[in-house]
Amino acid sequence: MAPTKYTNRTIPKISLLDFGTRISEITAQLIQAAETDGFFGLVDHGISSKEIEHMFENSSRFFSLPDSTKSTVPFSHLNAGWEKNAQVRPSTGMPDRKESYQMQFGSNMAGCWLPESTLPGFKDAALEFMKKAQSVSEKLMLCFARGLGFEDEYFIKAHDVSRAESQTVLRLLHYFEVDSTVPVPEGYYRAGAHVDWDFVTLLFQRPGQSGLEICPGREASTSFGIGDSWTRVEPKEGEIVCNIGDLLMSWSDDRFKSTFHRVKTPSVVGEDYFGPRYSMAYFNQPCTDAVIQGPLKKYEAVTGREFTQKAMNRNFAALKAKKEALEGVMDGAAVAVSSS
Ligand SMILES: O=C(O)CCC(=O)C(=O)O
Ligand SMILES: [Fe+2]
């Protein structure tokens, strides 16, 4: 693979400790991070390392089931369910080397949960963890609302997970172990470079299972950050890595930056991590009927449903262009387009 240029950048670390009394200070830090890097690490957020690890154990339980069982809850056009080697990124034109399982709170999950007898306790544990991730997300939403001059509850209402219109997703990810003796073909990524389409993503990683890389800022970026200088983000126990998605970028009239990121396929022995990588991404998606427009009205108002549809269409168009450029390489590959 062509060598990547790396730069050491410090990603802002933001503590949510004493949220009620420190809210102004936290808001200022979040706005600063959102305007510059588009990425930040959250600590003292109220989800313990034990709770995160417990959800990772549930994730491993799910992924260690046979494919024939997981395939009974396949990925659906409602952005829920299981896929394997099927998410093709426009940046690479190749399927990510991974499997993932997406869960939502409401009826979009109909037929996408495994029976209790197959995976006892899993659904309850997942929903409980999702509620915790939601409560952290709502703190961020309150601060972003204040920073943009909206009323405090504005974004929280637009992402109400108790409503049937909710589209918010927890994605469990499993990247397969890589054989260090086999050279990595050009263009292979565990997850190809992309931006997320959501409001803000909360990413949970397991210490030691590295590979996440980010390319901060947006204006100066080349297409998908290829050729730009990247920064590795090492997983730290208890820390949630957050990134601004396209939705918040648009809802802030481009004041906040949605940022390219990817997961490298390990290739350098002694430097990269070749073992399996598990991560979990909580994508804050707008309710289908939420109306999205920034305070400066830079973009036309759209609903949450239209925003998601447009993002999917853009992704499909970019993918089609990439496929045509790579004619033949992609024949027969199934395509899953989802939250990122
Ligand atoms: O696994 C990771 O660290 C990144 C996952 C990601 O960016 C995504 O699924 O959108
Ligand atoms: Fe992502």
Automatic annotation (TrEMBL):
<keyword id="KW-0560">Oxidoreductase</keyword>
<dbReference type="InterPro" id="IPR050231">
    <property type="entry name" value="Iron_ascorbate_oxido_reductase"/>
</dbReference>
<dbReference type="InterPro" id="IPR026992">
    <property type="entry name" value="DIOX_N"/>
</dbReference>
<dbReference type="InterPro" id="IPR044861">
    <property type="entry name" value="IPNS-like_FE2OG_OXY"/>
</dbReference>
<dbReference type="GO" id="GO:0044283">
    <property type="term" value="P:small molecule biosynthetic process"/>
</dbReference>
<dbReference type="Pfam" id="PF14226">
    <property type="entry name" value="DIOX_N"/>
</dbReference>
<comment type="similarity">
    <text>Belongs to the iron/ascorbate-dependent oxidoreductase family.</text>
</comment>
<protein>
    <submittedName>
        <fullName>Putative gibberellin 20 oxidase</fullName>
    </submittedName>
</protein>
<feature type="domain" description="Fe2OG dioxygenase">
    <location>
        <begin position="165"/>
        <end position="286"/>
    </location>
</feature>
<dbReference type="GO" id="GO:0016491">
    <property type="term" value="F:oxidoreductase activity"/>
</dbReference>
<dbReference type="InterPro" id="IPR027443">
    <property type="entry name" value="IPNS-like_sf"/>
</dbReference>
<dbReference type="Pfam" id="PF03171">
    <property type="entry name" value="2OG-FeII_Oxy"/>
</dbReference>
<dbReference type="GO" id="GO:0046872">
    <property type="term" value="F:metal ion binding"/>
</dbReference>
<keyword id="KW-0479">Metal-binding</keyword>
<keyword id="KW-0408">Iron</keyword>
<dbReference type="InterPro" id="IPR005123">
    <property type="entry name" value="Oxoglu/Fe-dep_dioxygenase_dom"/>
</dbReference>
